[in-house]
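INTERNAL AUDIT FORM
Audit reference: QA-55
Scope: verify that the stored structure record matches its stored sequence.
Auditor: D.O.
Record contents follow.
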Amino acid sequence: MNLKSFEKGLRKELNKWFSEKGFAVFEELGFTYFKKQEGYTDYVSIRLGGKAYLHELYAQVSMGRKIASIESYWEEYADLLGIQGGMRYTMNIDQLDERGVSQLAITVKDDDTEAVAKARDYIIQTFENLLYPQAELLTDIKELDRLHNDVPDTRRYGSIEKWYRRMIIAKLAGNENYKKILNIYLTMHNEGLQEEPGNKDFYEKRIFVANELDKKLNNVLPLNDPKAIV
């Protein structure tokens, strides 16, 4: 079985299973399923590949959840920041090894007649027993605050929205380090402004959005119910 046949067979099996669970196929993003619910949207992404010289095929699976009440605070600035389309996850559930490679994967031999069935069962079981329960656990502002803000991060680069998301989550969680989180971001980007004058527009826009978001969050009170984010 080659990779194309593997993908065709797996798509057929998973399309049926996920559709029965209320998911639709996200055609623009390849092998991805999504399900909109009140207050949030779940995405399940499948990645396939293979090593012909080893006669192996593999399937990886991960899940993301976008929580509208968090993302809505910053998304109005997406165009200004140059953020185009795509899926914006409030949380991304995937287990990575020290190289950043997903550990949520199954490898099968390309001559295994049960290859598609094994990959299908692995993906379904991983979704039901690991990914979805983890998403449910993290749909709690205190858990998200621990996930996003417990470990200080001074990396200037990465996804543009990650720092805005940290600010929003910290504010809603009542994190006493909210101002520290904001100031780390502003300091990093002001340093970037000094060190890279050729990227002035890049840094000024990010600083502007952080300050505007801070104003927006000024009178926002912590959630009384950690689960009230959806």
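Auditor finding: record pair retrieved intact. The mean pLDDT is 91.
Action required: none
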